[in-house]
Amino acid sequence: MRQNGRALQDVPEDLRSPGMCLEAVRQEGITLRHVPEALRREEMCLEAVAL
Known about the structure:
The protein is mostly helical.
């Protein structure tokens, strides 16, 4: 995720962790759309719009 945040879409949902999702969103804010609702946090949303 550190090199290509968009790779998150290729990771099965049940294997995505909050840390992995946050790192992906830090790389590519648009990746937030691939973060399961249950894993979304305020910090993640702020990172997505800060880019």
